[in-house]
Write a structure and sequence with these properties.
The protein is α+β, with helices and mostly antiparallel strands and about 70 residues long. The chain has one domain. It is about 35% helix and about 35% strand. It has one helix and four strands, in the order E-E-E-E-H. The strands form two sheets. Strands 1-2 form a two-stranded antiparallel sheet. Strands 3-4 form a two-stranded antiparallel sheet. Strand 1 and strand 2 form a beta hairpin. The radius of gyration is 14 Å and the shape is globular.
Length: about 70
């Protein structure tokens, strides 16, 4: 947790049962994080940009997985 109460946002991946966390260089208040959708609650002004970025990262990770499985 940062001094201003914000928590960093990470992506967690598993490869052959070994986990790795990737910092996404974004943060939010813990109270603004939605654990069900793994995104920032949409009532916030900055949530749209952060959530779009999270969706891009997820899509990129899926593409990497697809390429590795070929």
């Amino acid at each position: 947790m940062k001094n201003n109460g914000q928590i960093p946002i990470y992506a967690r991946i598993l490869v052959n049962g070994v986990g790795a966390d990737i910092s996404l260089q974004h943060s939010t208040l813990a109270s603004n994080w939605c654990h069900k959708s793994f995104s920032v609650k949409s009532r916030l002004k900055e949530s749209k940009n952060i959530n779009l970025y999270l969706n891009e990262v997820y899509s990129d990770l899926l593409e990497c997985h697809k390429q590795l499985c070929l």
